[in-house]
Every structure is written in C-alpha cells, then in structure tokens.
Amino acid sequence: MEKEIFNFFTGLVEKISGISYGAGKEYLVKSRLNELALTLGYKDIKELYSVVKTRLTPQLLTQIVDALTTNETYFFRDQHPFEALKNHIFPELFKLKEKEKKISIWSAACSTGQEPYSIAMLLVEYFSNYLKTYRISILATDISPTAIKKAKEGVYNQIEVNRGLPVTFLVKYFKQQGANWKIDDKIKRMVRFEIMNLLEAGKKIREKFDLIFCRYVLIYFSNETKKKVLSDIWRLLNPGGYLFLGSTEIPAITFPDMERKILGKTICYRKKL
Ligand SMILES: C[S@@+](CC[C@H](N)C(=O)[O-])C[C@H]1O[C@@H](n2cnc3c(N)ncnc32)[C@H](O)[C@@H]1O
Question: What is the mean pLDDT of the chain?
Fold first, then answer.
C-alpha cells in the first residue's frame, strides 16, 4: 500500500479513536480497508481514499474506524478475573453497599458483549439472593457499532460459545436458535449497551462505578492516550471500587489512591476508601 494512503487512514483513525497502527501493520490495514471499500461498492482502497479525501461524511468515518477495530473477545476471558469477582470482589462490594443497595459496573470496550454477559451470568449464578434486594447496573460500551449491534442481539455461533463458556452456563443461560445460541432475556436485560468512544467517556459519562473492566483496549493506544483514558476511567471509579485491565497490561499511570491487589491468580486495582 502506498505510504501516503496508509499514513492518511491510520492518522485519521488514531485521531478519532486513539488506536495507533505503527509500521508493520500495513497488510492488516490494507486488507480491512479493501474489504470495506468493496462492501461500499468501490473498486479498492485507492478509490476509497479518493472519496474520503473529497467528501468524508460522519457515517463513512464511523465505518472506517469500525473496520480498523480488533474485536477479539470471549466468554470469561482469562478466567482468573472472574474467579476474583466471585470469591473476593462481589462479596466485598455487596457488604460495602449494604445501605445503598446499588452496584454499578462498566465494561468499557466490551466488543461483542461476551465480557458484560459473563459478569451478568456470574452474578445470577452465584449471587441471586442479593439480586432480589440490590439494584445492579451494567453499562457496556464500545466504539464499534458493528460490535455493539451483535452484543445487543446476544446471538453467538458454536465456536463463540465453545470459547470460555462452561457447558453448564450454555445450557442454563442460552437457547438454541438454529445453528446459533441466543442469550437468555433475563441476562440480556441486565446489560445496557451503548456506542461510546473511550476518548470521550470522561466527558459523556455522568455515573460512577464500583467495578470497571477495561481490558485489552489500552494496548492499542499511544502512551499519552493510555494515560488520558486511564485518568478519566479512574475518576469514574467509586472509592472501594475495582479496575481490571487485561492480564498482560500494566497501568501507564498510577494514582495516590490506587492500590494494586493480587486476588487469587489475578491482579487488579482498587480505589482506596
Ligand atoms: C480486543 S477487544 C477487547 C474486548 C474485551 N474488553 C475483552 O477483553 O475481551 C478491544 C475493543 O476495544 C474497542 N475499542 C478500540 N478503541 C476504542 C475506543 N477509542 N473507544 C471504545 N472502544 C474502543 C474495539 O472496538 C474492540 O471491540
């Protein structure tokens, strides 16, 4: 791909989403944008480039950003964070919120929904007694409209349900729909999905959370963007609340009220009370 085209598209996408495509990613960018060009009825990426240069509509910009997101995810990803939720964090949060009786959760960059649905299933499976009296709010956001559409539908194919989801949960919380599996309405209703850019979340989100999952998204950002997003997210966490990053990620910035916690086999970050 001509360097000029690569630089143009990657510059545009980084400005909007923070996703930084360095050298070596030319093939990936080219194949994804070629696919988008064909879907939109253009000959190839070069034709898409000339269209974008002359009349870039907000809708086309969204489609370009969407095409360059990586939506890899699966149910109960990495397993250990969910064990920590079950064994340490939810028991602690239910106690901490005994008076208020409300727990707010945010799955930031939720992709196609497996992460927030895993949290919801875990709550129903192990904490159903508390759910009778506590209000649980789960907000799940992502910049990708395609991912959010699929998340809202809650329909997964056989390969997707074979990744990370215990068979007992599949039987209990999904219904077969042809060759696919549809998540139970009860679980679906627990999660609120919204298209949202993490770069704007600090300004847009008004509520605060007791638990934030922001996993495997900051890895795509520059160091400067990681620090900005992490600062915004940290401000949205309630005292006593927990933040999870991906298991290989370390915070690009730390805060005086940030405690690093090892819970079982996972690491997370707690905001001091
Ligand atoms: C690799 S997936 C991770 C999904 C999930 N958190 C997990 O750990 O399985 C990364 C997600 O981040 C989203 N993303 C990338 N940049 C974003 C941004 N600026 N705002 C919101 N979501 C973003 C992508 O659309 C993608 O769905």
Answer: 97
CA distance 31 to 44: 10
**Contact between 116 and 110 (Cβ < 8 Å):** yes
Residue 211's pLDDT is 98
Residue with tokens 């329909």: 155
Closest residue by Cα to residue 269 from 89, 76, 87: 89
Q: What is the pLDDT of residue 1?
A: 64
Residues 80-271, CATH architecture: 3-Layer(aba) Sandwich (3.40)
CB 232 less than 6 A from any atom of ligand 1: no
The ranges of the chain annotated as CATH 1.10.155 are 3-67
> Which of 119, 143, 213, 221 to probe ligand 1 with, by most ligand atoms within 8 A of CB?
143
Ligand 1 pocket check for 109: Cβ under 6 Å: yes
- Is residue 235 within 8 A of residue 202, CB to CB? The reply is yes
DSSP state, residue 149: H
3-67 to CATH, choices 1.10.3470, 1.10.155, 1.10.10, 2.40.160: 1.10.155
Query: Which amino acid residue places its CA nearest to atom 19 of ligand 1?
Result: 17
Dihedral over alpha carbons 40, 43, 45, 47 (to 10 degrees): -90
Q: Where in the chain is the domain with CATH 3.40.50.150?
A: 80-271
For range 139-144, the mean pLDDT: 98
169 CA → ligand 1 middle, Å: 24
Q: What is the dihedral of CA 187, 245, 180, 162, to 10 degrees?
A: -110
Helix axes 26-39, 3-17, angle to 10 degrees: 80
46 exposed, middle or buried (CB, 10 Å; 0-12, 13-18, 19+)?
A: middle
